[in-house]
Write a structure and sequence with these properties.
Shape: globular
CATH superfamily: TonB-dependent receptor, beta-barrel domain
Structural class: mainly beta
CATH architecture: Beta Barrel
Helix content: under 10%
Distance between the termini: 48 Å
Number of helices: 5
C-alpha cells in the first residue's frame, strides 16, 4: 500500500470546534468521524463535539481525526472501560497491563511503558496526570454522557501529555430542574472461575434550587471472580490454589452545579476510584491461566485515586472565560512473590495540582480566537524494592518532581462564506523537573514550543476535507540508577534523565455522508516523524530493563471509518480500521550493536501492524410497549514486535449484547470474548504463553432502571 507525504501550508487547529453534547438515540449513535447517529437526520440531533474547548461544532465539520461515543452507544455495545473502548478506535491498542489499576494505551505507534503518557486523559475539563508513569484513569462508564477520542498530536490545546492523542470523558451534569435516577445491576460467569462476577451502580440527580443549584451522586462497585491458578513451585498440572486473581473496583462521584446567573456556571466535582486485584494482570501462562513459583506467598495490585476539580465559566457578549482547577492524589502498585521467600514490590504515590485559565471568542463573525495559560505542580514518589533473601536486597526508592507552565493560543478565520477555514495555534511550555533518590538530585529543564496548522474545506454540509501539520512533545523519562546500571551492563549508554521526545504529524482527512445520513465515510492519512525517540531497552540485569534515547522513527498509516444505515429497518453496520507501518530511521550505533532489533529500517517495537472492528447494531419494536436491541462485534488486533524480540501474535475478539426495554426498564444478555481468545496480547519473559491476555469468555445478564 502506498503512503503519502503531504504538507499543509495553512493555519492551525480549530479554535472554533465546539462545546456541547453528543446526543444520539439509544443504540443508534456510532463512534467515528463517520459515526453520526443512525437516526440523526434532523439538524438538531446531529452530534457536536467539545474537543477545541470553545463553541459548538458538528462532528461532521470538525477538522480533526476524532471519534465520539455517546453513553447509550457504549452501553449497547457493552463498552464499560477504556480497555473495551480501544478496540473501536483506529490505531489504538493496550500497550501494557501491569494490573487493573495501571494500564497503558497507545495510538498510531506512539508507545510507552514509563514516562509521562503520550496520550492525554481528561475527566471533563481536568487532566488525569501521573508524573513519569503514564497510566490511564481506571474510570468506568456508568454515568458517562460521551467520550471523545482525538488521534494524533494535540499539544497546542492539551499540552505535553498529548503527543499521541487525547481521551476526553464527559460525565453527566446535575439537572437543574428535574429529579433523575438510574440504577444498574449485573451478574456474569467467566470460564474457569468458580464464582460469579457481580456489580451494582447508580446515579441520582437532585435539584436544590430550580435553575440555580443541583447535585449529582453516582458510583458503584464490582466484584470479579478469579479464574487463574497458583503453583507454589513450577507448573505440574495440579494447582495449589485456584481462582486467585479476583478483582474489586469501587468508585464514587459527587458533582455540584451552581448557576447564580444566566452567564455564570460553576461546577465542583469529587471523584474516587479504588481498583484492586489479587496478584497482577501478568501471568506465567495465559492458557491455562496460572502463576507459578510463588512459594505460597500472596501477590496483589492496588489503586486508590482521588480527584477534586472546580470549573467556572463566565459568558460575556463577545467572549467567554473559563477557569479549571484540579488536584489529584493517588496510591497504586504491585507486589509479586518470588520463590522461595522473595518479592518485588513497586508502589507509587502521585500528586498533581493543575490550573488552567482560558478566554475564547463567542461572536458570530468570521474571526475566532482562544488564548490561555496553564500551571502544574506535581510529584511521582515511588517505593521500589527487590528482596530475595539472603543475597539480594535492592531499594530503588525515588521521586520525580515537576513544576511547569504554558501559554497557548489559537486563531481561525472563515473565508468564502465559511467554506475555507485556515487555523493556527501555538503553545510554549516550560518545565523544571528533577529526579531524586537516596544518592542525590538530578535537575532538568525543558522549554518547548508546539504548533498546529490546519486548512479546512467545506464545500457543502456533507463533505469536509482538511490538511494539517502539528507537532508533539513528551518530557524525558527519568529512571532509577539501578536501571541505568542494568543498561550499562548491556552495553547501552544511559542516563537517569532522558532527553525529551518530539514528533511532527502531517495529515489529510476526509468526511463524507449522503444527504440522508444513511452512509458515512471517514478517511485519514497520516505521517508521524519522531525525533529522539524514547523506548524500553533490555538491560543486563535479569528482569531489570531501562529506557534510552536511541534515534528517530517514522510511522505512516491509514484510518478508515464506515457507517451504513441499511435498508433493513433498524439494522446498521459499522467498520473502523487502521493500517500502520512504523520503522526506525536512525539509531545510535552503540545501542544498535547492543540491541540488534533496534536498527535502521527495522520495525518499531510494540506497535500494531493493523487493527479493525466490525459492528452490527439492530433495533426493533417487539410490541407497542417493548423494543428490542442488539449488537454483535468482531475486533482484530494485529501482531507486534516486542523489545525482547518476541512477536505477540494477532488476536480476535467477538462480543455481543441483546436486550429488551420498556419505558424506563431494560434487560440485556451480554457476552464478551465468545470464542475464548487467550492471547497473549503481550508476551512475558517466561515462555511464549506468559504475559497478559484477554479475560476468558464471560456471559452475563444486566438489568437497568432509569428515569431519563
Amino acid at each position: 500500500m502506498r503512503y503519502f507525504r503531504h504538507i499543509s501550508v495553512a493555519s492551525a487547529i480549530a479554535a472554533v470546534l465546539a462545546s456541547g453534547a453528543a446526543y444520539a438515540q439509544a443504540g443508534e449513535g456510532e463512534a467515528g468521524d463517520a459515526g453520526d447517529s443512525a437516526a440523526s437526520i434532523a439538524d438538531d440531533s446531529r452530534i457536536v463535539v467539545t474537543a477545541s474547548k470553545v463553541g459548538a461544532q458538528e462532528l461532521q465539520e470538525a477538522p480533526l481525526a476524532i471519534q465520539v461515543f455517546d453513553g447509550e452507544d457504549l452501553r449497547e455495545r457493552n463498552i464499560t472501560t477504556i480497555g473495551d473502548l480501544v478496540s473501536a478506535v483506529p490505531g489504538a491498542q493496550e500497550g501494557f497491563r501491569q494490573s487493573n489499576a495501571s494500564r497503558f494505551y497507545n495510538l498510531r505507534g506512539n508507545v510507552t511503558q514509563n514516562g509521562d503518557s503520550p496520550i492525554g486523559y481528561y475527566l471533563d475539563d481536568t487532566p488525569f496526570i501521573v508524573t513519569n508513569f503514564g497510566i490511564a484513569p481506571p474510570v468506568r462508564f456508568i454515568d458517562m454522557e460521551r467520550v471523545e477520542v482525538l488521534r494524533g498530536p494535540h499539544g497546542t490545546l492539551y499540552g505535553q501529555g498529548s503527543s499521541g492523542g487525547v481521551f476526553i470523558f464527559h460525565t453527566r451534569d446535575p439537572d437543574l430542574r428535574d429529579f433523575e435516577y438510574t440504577f444498574e445491576a449485573e451478574a456474569s460467569a467467566t470460564r474457569g472461575a468458580s464464582d460469579l462476577n457481580y456489580g451494582m451502580a447508580g446515579a441520582v440527580s437532585i435539584p436544590v434550587a430550580e435553575d440555580m443549584l443541583a447535585f449529582r451522586v453516582s458510583g458503584g462497585f464490582s466484584r470479579d471472580a478469579g479464574y487463574a491458578d497458583v503453583y507454589y513451585g513450577a507448573f505440574d498440572g495440579t494447582p495449589d490454589e485456584t481462582d486467585v486473581n479476583s478483582a474489586k473496583n469501587d468508585d464514587l462521584r459527587v458533582v455540584a452545579l451552581f448557576k447564580p446567573s444566566d452567564n455564570v456556571t460553576i461546577r465542583g466535582q469529587y471523584w474516587n476510584f479504588r481498583p484492586r486485584q489479587n496478584f497482577t494482570g501478568f501471568t506465567a501462562s495465559v492458557d491455562p491461566v496460572y502463576f507459578e513459583n510463588t512459594a505460597g506467598q500472596d501477590g496483589f495490585s492496588n489503586g486508590d485515586f482521588t480527584l477534586w476539580s472546580l470549573t467556572a465559566t463566565v459568558d460575556f457578549d463577545a467572549f467567554s472565560v473559563t477557569s479549571a482547577t484540579s488536584n489529584l492524589e493517588g496510591e497504586f502498585g504491585i507486589n509479586i512473590p518470588i520463590s522461595p521467600a522473595g518479592s518485588f514490590s513497586s508502589q507509587f504515590f502521585p500528586k498533581m495540582f493543575a490550573q488552567e485559565v482560558r478566554v475564547n471568542s463567542t461572536g458570530d463573525g468570521p474571526f475566532n480566537w482562544l488564548i490561555g495559560a496553564s500551571y502544574q505542580n506535581g510529584s511521582g514518589p515511588q517505593e521500589n524494592a527487590l528482596q530475595i533473601p539472603p543475597f539480594v536486597n535492592i531499594n530503588a526508592d525515588n521521586d520525580t518532581l515537576t513544576e511547569n507552565w504554558a501559554v497557548f493560543g489559537e486563531v481561525s478565520y472563515e473565508l468564502l462564506d465559511g467554506k475555507l477555514i485556515p487555523l493556527a495555534g501555538i503553545r510554549t511550555y516550560h518545565d523544571d523537573r528533577s529526579f531524586r533518590d537516596g544518592t542525590g538530585t538530578v535537575p532538568t529543564k525543558a522549554s518547548v514550543e508546539t504548533w498546529r496548522l490546519n486548512l479546512t474545506y467545506l464545500p457543502n454540509d456533507n463533505l469536509t476535507m482538511f490538511v494539517s501539520a502539528a507537532t508533539g512533545f513528551r518530557p524525558g523519562i527519568v529512571q532509577s540508577r539501578v536501571q541505568v546500571e542494568s543498561l550499562e551492563l548491556a552495553g547501552v549508554p544511559a542516563t537517569v534523565a532522558l532527553d525529551p521526545e518530539s514528533s511532527k504529524n502531517y495529515e489529510f482527512g476526509l468526511k463524507w455522508r449522503t444527504s440522508d445520513d444513511t452512509l458515512n465515510v471517514g478517511l485519514n492519512l497520516y505521517r508521524l516523524e519522531y525525533t529522539n525517540l524514547q523506548t524500553s531497552v533490555t538491560g543486563g540485569i535479569d528482569g531489570v530493563n531501562g529506557f534510552a534515547n536511541f534515534g528517530d522513527a517514522t510511522t505512516q498509516g491509514i484510518d478508515l471509518e464506515l457507517r451504513w444505515r441499511t435498508p433493513v429497518d433498524g439494522l446498521s453496520l459499522g467498520f473502523v480500521g487502521n493500517i500502520n507501518d512504523s520503522e526506525y530511521d536512525t539509531v545510535n550505533e552503540v545501542i544498535a550493536e547492543a540491541q540488534p532489533l533496534l536498527r535502521p529500517g527495522a520495525r518499531l517495537i510494540n506497535t500494531l501492524s493493523d487493527n479493525w472492528r466490525i459492528d452490527a447494531n439492530y433495533n426493533t419494536g417487539i410490541t407497542p410497549d417493548w423494543d428490542g436491541f442488539g449488537n454483535v462485534s468482531f475486533s482484530h488486533s494485529g501482531d507486534r514486535l516486542q523489545a525482547s524480540g518476541i512477536v505477540a501474535n494477532p488476536y480476535n475478539l467477538v462480543n455481543f449484547t441483546a436486550g429488551v426495554r420498556s419505558d424506563n426498564w431494560e434487560v440485556a444478555l451480554i457476552g464478551n470474548n465468545l470464542f475464548d481468545e487467550r492471547g497473549p496480547t503481550f508476551v512475558g519473559n517466561n515462555g511464549p504463553l506468559s504475559g497478559s491476555g484477554p479475560t476468558p469468555r464471560t456471559i452475563g445478564l444486566r438489568v437497568r432502571l432509569l428515569s431519563y
